[in-house]
Every structure is written in C-alpha cells, then in structure tokens.
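Narrative progress, year one. The postdoctoral researcher (J.K.) led the effort to move from monomer predictions toward full complexes, under supervision of the PI. The following entry was the first complex the group processed end to end, covering 838 residues in total.
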Amino acid sequence: MAIQHASHHSSMTGQWIPSTCGMCLHGCGIRVQVVDGVAVKIEGDPTNPDNLGKLCPKGNAGLSRLYDPTRILKPMQRTNPAKGPGVDPGWVEIEWEEAYEIVARELGRVRRDDPRKLLCAIGDFQRIILWGWPAVFGSPNFFTSLGNYCGGSYHPVNGMVDGSFAAINDYAYCNYWIQLGSGDGFSSHLHVSGSTKRMADARMRGMKVVVVDPRCSPAAAKADEWIPIVPGTDRAFVLGMAHVLVHELRRYDRQFLREHTNAPYLVGEDGFFWRDERGRAQVWDLRVDAPRPWNDVPREAMALEGTFRVDGHCLRTGFQVWKDILVDHTPERMAEISTVPASTIRRLAREFVDAAQIGATIEIEGKTYPFRPAALNYYRGAQSHANGLLDNMTYKLFNMLVGNIDVPGGHLGVPLDHRGFFISPGEDGMIKPEPHQLHPIPPFKYPPDSTHLMEWFPIGFDAGQLNAETLLEPERFGLDYQPEVLLLYHSNPLWNMPETDKIEQIMRRMKFIVAIDIHLTESTQWADVFLPDRTYLESTLLNCLEPPVVTGHSLRQPVVEPLGDTRDAYEILTELAERLGFLDDWNDLLNVVCGFVANTTYMLDPDRRYTVEELWDRFARSVYGDDRGLEWFKRHGHAVRYRTPEETYMPYGDLRIPFYFEYVKRVGAQLRQQMEAAGITDWRFDNYVPLPFWKNSPVIEDGERGYDFYAITFKEALHTFADTVVMPWLTEVSEKDPVHQGILINRATAERLGIETGQRIRLVSPAGCIEGRAQVVEGIHPQVVGVSNAITREYVTNPTVRVKGAHFNRLLTGSMRYTDSATGGLESTARVRIEVID
Ligand SMILES: Nc1nc2c(c(=O)[nH]1)N[C@H]1C(S)=C(S)[C@@H](COP(=O)(O)OP(=O)(O)OC[C@H]3O[C@@H](n4cnc5c(=O)[nH]c(N)nc54)[C@H](O)[C@@H]3O)O[C@H]1N2
Ligand SMILES: Nc1nc2c(c(=O)[nH]1)N[C@H]1C(S)=C(S)[C@@H](COP(=O)(O)OP(=O)(O)OC[C@H]3O[C@@H](n4cnc5c(=O)[nH]c(N)nc54)[C@H](O)[C@@H]3O)O[C@H]1N2
Ligand code: SF4
Ligand SMILES: [Mo]
C-alpha cells in the first residue's frame, strides 16, 4: 500500500504518490511528496493529459486543507439546544459509536413516520455516486443550490442538443472564440488547470478571444476585446448578432441546418410539427412542392426556409419560424437592452461568420469533417437567469447557424463522465432528448412529494432555491408535510442559496441536524451531531467529471494516514444505511449508479457491507477490465487519455439535433394538462417554448422600482466558491488583490454617488441587503456592482481569516417569480440600490 511505502522511507525526498486534486470538482491529476508520513508538497501529475502537470492555486494549496488546525477531527455533539448564527453550540467530542447511535435514532424516527421529512443538502461532486442516498432513505428533497445556481438551464439544454452535460469551444482548432460570462480557459469552470494551458496555446497560434462580461474578469483582461454588458442581457446581444447573420448578411450554414438539424421540419400554426396520419414529421419537398415525411425526402431536396399553404393551413419550416422571430431583434433594439453598441453587434457578427469558414472541411485521422473554427462559449454568468432556458437555446442556435456544433473548431459537447455522450435515436430521425442525466425524469405528482417541486419540472434541474418559498408557504404548493430533520454533507446552504434569511428560518424549524463535513461553517454550526469526513488527501475514489478534452478516471488515494478520528463519507453513509435497515436498497442503488447492473460480474450483494476500497476496486474493474483494479490505479494514478476525434466530433452521426425545440413545447403542454387536471391554475408555462426570443425578466422590471443598479457575483482561480476562504495560503493572496477587497464599483458611478474606496456602502435589493467596503475600479460596467466570493463569508473558525460578511446571496430571491418556469434555473443577478453608510 502506498502509505506504508511512504512511512518506510525516511530519505529527504520521501516518496511521490499519485492522486487526484479535490480542491474543486474537476479532479486534476496530482502527485504528493510524502516524507516520513508527512505530506510536504503537491504538484501536477505530468503524466495526466487532463491538467498536463499543471495545478491552479487551490490545487497547490491543498496541504493547508489537510493540515488545517481548525478542521474537525472527532465526532461532536451539541450541548446547547439554542441555535443560530454565532450561538455557541457547546460542542463536546463523542465516540463514533455514540454519534451513529444518535443519528440513526433521529433519522430512524422520521423515516418510520414519513421519510420525506428529511431535507438533504449534498454537495460532493467527486462523490456523485453518493447523491442517491436520500432517495433510498425515501426523501426526494434537495436543499441546496448546487448545480442549479450554475447549470439549472445549461445541463438540460446540453442534454437535449447532443446528449452532453456541458460544452466548450474546440481549443485545438478554434480561431475565433466569443466567451460570455464564463471563466473557461482563464479562471473557472471546466478543468481550469489544463484549460488555461490549452487557451494560451490557442492564443499563441493566433486565436482571437472576445469576452462579454459586466466585469473585466481575468478572461476579459487577457482577451483581444472586452465587451461590458448589462447582466442578464447576453441573450439580447446574441439575438442581435443572429439577426445580422440571418437578415442582414444572409450568411449561415444552410447545409448543416438542413442535414444535421430539424430546422427544415414543417411547423403548423399550433407550433407543433406538421405530421402525417402515421405521426411522421413532414418537410417541404422541393422536387414536388409538397409536404412529405422527412425520411422520404433526400436531404438536399428539403426546403430550409419558407412559408407554405396546405389545405388552408400555413406551414413554416422551423428555421423560418426563428427567422421571423428575429426580424425585430435588430442590433439597435438589442443594443438598447444590453448597452452593447449596435455597431459592435454588427462587427462581431461579421467577424464571427468570416472566421467560421462556412463550407470548409478538414481531414483528421483519415476522416473528413466540416471545419468551423469560430464558436461562442458561455457559462454561469450568461445564462443563470430567470429565462435561462431561452438564454441557452439562443447560444446553441447561434452556434448552429454557422454549423459548428461538435465539429472541429466549433462548439463541442462535454460528456458528464467516461460514458461519453448520451446519444440514442429519438423521434423523426432526431436524437433522443436527455434533459436529465443525474436521475430519471420525475413523474408529475400532486400534491408534490418534494419540497423543491421536482415533480413539476419534467425538463428541469432540481430547483433547490424554491425551498425558500415552498417551505414558508406550503399550502400554496399543496405540500402536506413539514420537514423536521436536515442532513448536511459537503454543502453550505446558508451560504450557497438565495434568501439566506428564509433558509435560516427553515433551519430553525429543524428538530435535528446532522453534518458530514470537515469544518464548522455558516451551516454546520447549526448541527446537533457533527460527523468528521476525511479530506481528499486521506480518502479513496475514482473521478471523471466533465473533462473537456480527455476521458478516463483518475484515482484519489490516501497519501498519509488519516488525521484524527475521521471516517470516509462513503463509510459514514453506508453505516447509517445499515443501522437504518436499508443497506440492501443502498447497495442496489450503487449497483445502478456505478453501472454494475450492466456488467453483473461486479454486482454488489445487497446484504453485504463493502469497504470504500472494495467498492472502487469493483468500479475500476467493471470499467477497465479485471486486470485494472484499485491496485493498478494505485501504481499508475490514472487511466486518463485524450478523447479520439471519433469520440469528440459529430457524435450524433446521422441523427439530427434539435434546432426547433418541439420537445420542450410538448413537455410544457403535457404538464399544463396534468396541472389543470390537478386543479392548479396559477403555475407558469411561459418558458416552454420551442425557440428563443427577447422578453424582459423580473430583474429588468425591478429597475422600475428604484433599484437602479445590478449586483453580480463571480468566481476566480484563487477560490472554490467561498469555501477555500478559510485557507490562509489562498486568502493571504486574494486579500492583496483589489478585486477581492471590497464591493467593486465603477469609477464614474462612484464619483457621481460620492463614494471612495474604503467607504462602507450598503446594497439593498428587493430581497435583502448587505454591507461592505467600496472598491472603486475601472473594470466594471457603470450600472453594475460586483461581489467576489472571497468577501462573502459570515462565519469562519480560522482566526487568521477576517470575515467580510458581504454575503451576496442575501440579495437574491428564491421564488418562482425569479425562476425559469421550464428548467427551475435561478436568477443569479439582483437589482440593488446603493447607499452610503457614513
Ligand atoms: N476557480 C474556480 N473554479 C470553479 C469553481 C470555483 O468556485 N472556483 N466552481 C465550479 C462550479 S460548480 C461552477 S458552476 C463553475 C462556474 O464557472 P463560471 O461560469 O466560469 O464562473 P462564474 O464566476 O460563476 O461566472 C462567470 C463570469 O460571469 C460573469 N457574470 C456575472 N453575471 C453576468 C451576466 O449577466 N452576463 C455575463 N456575460 N457575465 C456575467 C462574472 O463576472 C464571471 O466573470 O466553475 C467551476 N470551477
Ligand atoms: N454567492 C455565491 N453563491 C453561490 C455561488 C457563487 O459563486 N457565489 N456558486 C453557486 C454554485 S455554482 C454552486 S455549485 C454552489 C456550491 O455551493 P456548496 O455546495 O455549498 O459548495 P462547496 O464548496 O462544495 O461546499 C462547501 C462545504 O463543503 C465542505 N467541505 C469541503 N471539503 C470537504 C470534504 O472533503 N468533505 C466534506 N464532507 N465536506 C467538505 C466545506 O466545509 C463546506 O461546508 O454554490 C452556489 N452559490
Ligand atoms: S482546477 Fe485547481 S482546484 Fe480544481 S481540481 Fe484542478 S488543481 Fe484542483
Ligand atoms: Mo456550480
């Protein structure tokens, strides 16, 4: 075993042990130098093609997570029944046996009564296989914004377009890269350690980068061009560019749209495809000037555009419908909304389509593909908004206009994990939509079981923020029970969710809270029992999560003997499952999520208890073959390799991808029927639309109520969320950077309001208010204030870290009004007033 090797060595250099970084979800390959049983240095694993031997600052600082003197190393029980921010819990250390007994008793009580009374906040991306534990317990509840604050609308749309989970432009071949609201290749999102190198290499070969962000982010600062924008209006900017391509330049990839999408399918007046008596979608056959089933017409004979009359009905192709929508989305009108000048919208659209080289091809490893080296990439900032579904559709369609989806140089889907794209044949020659990849589509139910109403979001991600509304007004949503117990595991809902006050009220009602964590935080300080987990340098798993250019697992293994008296989270949850009497169901669930059901050799016996090493050993063998168990991974560290061109490009093959999202419209219509049958009359269906367009969001409307400014939050390379703020090695650096010193405000705005750097200001939104020091900068839109995650923590136990308490999420609203009605995606921008405190 690696640890024994390490401790037997006492030379100065000790031993280098391969493992996987756990400082953020992405899991770069690392090697850790261990001397006399002490980890002394972490470096990037040079053999891992994911991060190419590089690490970001957080990865380099990992030792201070392991050896953090404020980590909790022994189970603890609360003795003070009073709870709340800053209330001393009166912790006493207890033994594991006693801790398990208490937790099993309290959880057992609600499980026998009504298992839905358990709320769960689980946030450990790398141990995603554990996320199903609440479901086996019997609770559907999701009490966190994890995944939804960022990907609520993004993941479903990627899943519908090409069975991917995320997306990135092609680092290898792209020549013109537009980036909206994302740190990809610079500071955050997909595998930043490797991506920054790939981005830099692409720049060196001449790729141009245009960054659209309200703030001069690291990406914007390094780009060829920074376009400041009003938050939540990126869709308008891109719709304006689409107008230019379609109506002014008339340049788009007609061949791609006709052959690889459903854009030529005919749409009836009701917005659904025009189908024949056998249900087959129709296209306009140019040879006979009549509608014909899509599969009876050669691709080159399909009309891409046009309005046709048949038996008194008006039919348009899907492409024509969007073209008609775009007519009034002129650069002038979109400029008014976004503040990006119309001339800039026109220029960028032209540069983009010029760079896209419509019609060009490229040969890679003996196969010829379309070559479209221009693409638009985006993430959280550009689409975590109240109409996020429309945002995401717009960006996909804009890319589709130049035919760049999953082709060399273009916009590439990124699979969830080693299984690759989820692609299978759906209806009418199209791919089957996969809006859900983390759990099955929740069937409609009234009254709902889940407190976040998952049964009412058939294409949505779990809208955790809705707890703030549903739990305080349960009767409005037909919720017929009240949660009593909360399980926190690697999650800080009092930090991560909108409307912190309301989340606090909900926490107050809990009869029992158990936390599986490594630290006391805003949330875990409310626990009745604290169960200490092991850090990533002391635990075991195999990780492969949203790798942009590679595939394959990297091993996390203990590099030192675990400190203190801690247990691996898998062991904790498995012990609890056993004590609560559902070990068999738990193993059955693991059989499904680990894919053992497809390869029964490695199936877990429902009644046996497996150690964490046994579990991952089986997993490794099931994916890589019997000779590549855990021992193989301990020696080699990883099985990560580049994805082949075949695995990367045009994974949809001959299946068409959606241009016209009829599926979304259909799902909405079905839900409306179910809702009506259940007697629910006030649910919104407005975003179940097949094509995107501009409409104002509640955030824009809030401006009319005297909230003149916009507040945004952002991530940067130095921190993971605000969790790593407790690591002095990182905070010492971020505290020296003006970006993380206060609330960012534009110089012209500050002068107008008489505000100077250092002055205390208050931001007041419709939901709440926060206070902090002003930081006057040039690099932010004059209508926007920016709050770095680094200044948001309200409770930390490390005495060297100063709490700044400007908790951004207090400004956001966690209600349906600020939620995308189709995806459950939340609005991550707030309108605010700025007040000077003294
Ligand atoms: N370093 C680091 N990397 C991470 C994480 C981390 O915490 N730290 N977290 C991981 C997770 S879970 C996620 S979700 C991803 C998130 O990755 P990103 O989406 O890249 O990160 P964010 O900083 O949330 O948002 C990106 C940018 O959006 C800008 N922005 C805010 N509002 C708007 C807007 O309305 N329009 C536009 N155009 N821009 C806007 C912000 O200024 C910011 O620069 O990163 C992952 N990787
Ligand atoms: N203001 C603001 N709010 C945000 C965001 C933002 O950028 N700004 N980002 C949003 C996004 S995109 C997301 S995904 C969510 C993420 O929000 P969270 O899921 O809350 O974030 P994490 O950092 O994963 O979880 C933090 C908790 O994990 C604990 N932890 C750290 N390491 C370990 C470990 O090894 N084991 C265990 N058991 N616990 C550990 C920490 O002590 C802390 O309690 O937040 C969302 N909310
Ligand atoms: S990006 Fe940084 S924190 Fe995330 S896994 Fe890689 S090195 Fe670790
Ligand atoms: Mo996220």
